[in-house]
């Protein structure tokens, strides 16, 4: 379970992002050249798709850089969640530019179909793009697979607090599917002598991108608003506190991610009445050290002595 929380915020994430960026820039240039030669709507759409993906990788790299800034007076918990903001922007760009341009371009080619030129250049570019995109996809899949551990794939995506890994994975998956759709669209256009089919393929690619963008926006929104740590982290905090004899009851453990690899935790616990203030302070300090040693991702820990009945009243009111 902890694997879903690890994320790939270090060099692993950069490998995924740099591989995707290099692939998409090269593919975008090739697709635009092929679209200009063949007049293919779906090829032009795929070029725009790759160009948008390239910009997305740059935004995620920028977000990672900004998220590493140290805490200051205005942002005492740091800037880690700025990465979540840029992840949300990426989802909007995929929807607005990628999906929007694809659907518009497809509709234009259905209303005003243009005869297609020799398709073999398009097929060659699609094959090269599929190989490059597939390499980027495999790197993203491998890195996310290592990060998730034994956690099921969909659960790992839902619980992941590092958007860089799963965004690239979804982008590359959509790109591979789009290449297949573009190839089928070009082939059917020539086989049936109907250039409008290529426009339909462009619309299908746009709808595919819209679905991916919606899914990514939903995940990014949850991270931006603030999500708790996974159950494994919460259970570990409770386990450490429960074995302390001076703590009668752990009322609640509330967590929130301030970055992919940083967690703020607030604990309410019922302490022995016989503890003096000095003993209580020493106990809290020792517990904080033990918690950080067990889970380095706990960047900020707040432990509040509180009677069980008082804590229950607060929960009821809240």
TrEMBL record:
Belongs to the cation diffusion facilitator (CDF) transporter (TC 2.A.4) family. InterPro entries: Cation_efflux (IPR002524), Cation_efflux_CTD (IPR027470), Cation_efflux_CTD_sf (IPR036837), Cation_efflux_TM (IPR058533), Cation_efflux_TMD_sf (IPR027469), SLC30A9 (IPR040177). Pfam families: Cation_efflux (PF01545), ZT_dimer (PF16916). Keywords: Membrane, Transmembrane, Transmembrane helix, Transport. It is a multi-pass membrane protein. Residues 18-224 form the Cation efflux protein transmembrane domain. It is found in: Membrane. Residues 236-306 form the Cation efflux protein cytoplasmic domain. The chain crosses the membrane at residues 15-34, 83-104, 120-141, 166-188, 200-218. This is Cation diffusion facilitator family transporter. It comes from Sphingomonas rustica.
């Amino acid at each position: 379970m902890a694997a879903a929380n690890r994320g790939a915020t270090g060099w692993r994430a950069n490998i995924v992002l740099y591989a995707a960026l290099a692939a998409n820039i090269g593919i975008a240039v090739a697709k635009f050249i092929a679209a200009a030669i063949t007049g293919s709507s779906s090829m032009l759409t795929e070029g725009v798709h790759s160009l948008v993906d390239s910009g997305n990788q740059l935004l995620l790299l920028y977000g990672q850089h900004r998220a590493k800034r140290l805490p200051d007076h205005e942002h005492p918990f740091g800037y880690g969640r700025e990465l979540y903001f840029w992840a949300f922007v990426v989802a909007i760009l995929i929807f607005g530019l990628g999906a929007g341009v694809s659907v518009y371009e497809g509709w234009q080619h259905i209303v005003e179909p243009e005869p297609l030129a020799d398709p073999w250049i398009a097929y060659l570019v699609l094959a090269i793009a599929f190989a490059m995109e597939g390499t980027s996809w495999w790197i993203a899949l491998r890195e996310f697979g290592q990060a998730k551990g034994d956690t099921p794939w969909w659960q790992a995506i839902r619980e992941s607090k590092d958007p860089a890994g799963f965004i690239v994975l979804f982008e590359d998956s959509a790109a591979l599917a789009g290449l297949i759709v573009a190839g089928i669209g070009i082939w059917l256009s020539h086989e049936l002598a109907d250039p409008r089919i290529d426009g339909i393929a462009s619309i299908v690619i746009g709808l595919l991108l819209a679905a991916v963008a919606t899914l990514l926006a939903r995940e990014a929104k949850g991270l931006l608003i603030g999500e708790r740590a996974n159950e494994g982290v919460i259970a570990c905090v409770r386990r450490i506190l429960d074995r302390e004899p001076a703590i009668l009851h752990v009322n609640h453990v509330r967590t929130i991610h301030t970055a992919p690899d940083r967690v703020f935790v607030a604990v309410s616990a019922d302490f022995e009445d016989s503890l003096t203030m000095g003993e209580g302070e020493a106990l809290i300090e020792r517990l904080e050290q033990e918690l950080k040693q067990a889970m380095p991702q706990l960047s900020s820990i707040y432990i509040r002595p509180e009677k069980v009945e008082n804590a229950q009243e607060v929960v009821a009111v809240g």
